[in-house]
């Protein structure tokens, strides 16, 4: 057993127990934060473990054999996750995304999907259920995931070139197996499939056009490729602004080969800007988390593997919902109504907008300010 990653950067323990208001209205689905933003999207991290060591997320030097992952007993059970998700859905969440770590490493994750698929929004709809994966186990698991009620999937894929891909995942994992995972996901009817490429200047930027071409040719318009600006999440990836390739440049490079035209967003709060191929070959998206902040419409909350709620990808502190799920007061467990009221209070006090404030914070706090790690909280 080794020491935690870095006592100043390891924020897994930084969470306060949320107050439970003595009286609160029942969830109405109309919750708003201090900036008027609704709560629509809950990202649930189901494990902090991963079989990849992507250099920008879990660099090997810091996440080696001595790294201490969370013990099994501290993970939320499927019942606890489902209970929490049900309370968020009552508050207006329409979309549940499983992430990690690598979510397909969580044993029987399809059972959790089946439990989540049985939830209903206040309007009586099934919530939109999706999952973000590195694709390594997708060929094997896609049929069971689909049968359990998963509707769609996002696969991370940073390069088509095998050597570049193996270098970026840093465990020598072959790109062919991820491509096969996408094919099987398509065959079993998961749709739409999104493929996310994190673009790191000087590392995989030359793969932008080849990947765009391959996705068009091999998978067709049912698979949407999206380019993500390399972000300063966590404190372990040694992020530098000069390694960010602005999305505007990504669009320009693709447009030179495959002309593009802009598309309207699918939904309010959508993180990606959408572009259609003018020849009808489908669409691509860009997620400009660094160069074009979208905090104004951010309707996402994140639940960590051990039940801590984070209101921003760049939060310094979580809210320990597990303490309520497992805790007792006045000789009894907390009721759903009480936990829902605590969640309502947390969201109603939310004021986060890190990306908008990035420039100012970088000046004030410096690049090494403590932040939650991406493999712990998911994307
Ligand atoms: N392991 C799964 C995967 O890779 O898809 C799910 C978890 S991973 C943390 C979620 C997403 O975050 C992935 O698409 C990954 O590429 C992205 N990501 C991780 N670190 C990032 C960074 N520094 N900047 C931008 N995206 C990042
Ligand atoms: Fe694992 Fe995903 Fe992070 Fe890569 S990005 S190390 S696959 S959690
Ligand atoms: Fe949302 Fe925080 Fe990202 Fe802004 S920086 S879009 S508030 S997660």
How would you sum up this structure, described in words?
With 379 residues, the chain is an alpha/beta fold. The protein has one domain: Aldolase class I (TIM Barrel, Alpha-Beta Barrel). A 13-stranded mixed sheet has the order 1-13-12-11-2-3-4-5-6-7-10-9-8. The chain has a two-stranded antiparallel ribbon with strand order 14-15. A hairpin with a 7-residue loop joins strand 12 and strand 13. The chain binds S-adenosylmethionine and iron/sulfur cluster (2 copies). The site of S-adenosylmethionine has 21 residues, from strand 4, strand 6 and helix 11. The site of one iron/sulfur cluster has 11 residues, from helix 10.
Helix content bin: 25-40%
Arithmetic mean pLDDT: 91
Flag low-confidence runs: 1-9
Give the cofactors and ligands.
Answer: S-adenosylmethionine, iron/sulfur cluster
User: What can be said about the biggest beta sheet?
Assistant: 13 strands, mixed
Whole-number tally of structural domains: 1
User: Taking strands numbered 1, 2, ... along the chain, how are they ordered across the largest sheet?
Assistant: 1-13-12-11-2-3-4-5-6-7-10-9-8
How much of the sequence lies in strands comes to: 15-25%
- Large-scale geometry: globular
**Considering the protein shown, what is the CATH homologous superfamily?**
Aldolase class I
Do you know the CATH topology? TIM Barrel
N- to C-terminal separation? Answer: 27 Å
Indicate the radius of gyration in whole angstroms.
Answer: 20 Å
By DSSP (H or I, 4+ residues per run), the number of helices equals 11
Secondary-structure class: alpha/beta
| H and E string | EEHEHEHEHHEHEHEEEEEEHEEHHH
The CATH architecture designation is Alpha-Beta Barrel
**CATH class bucket:** Alpha Beta
In terms of quaternary structure, the protein is: single chain
Let me know the number of strands.
Answer: 15
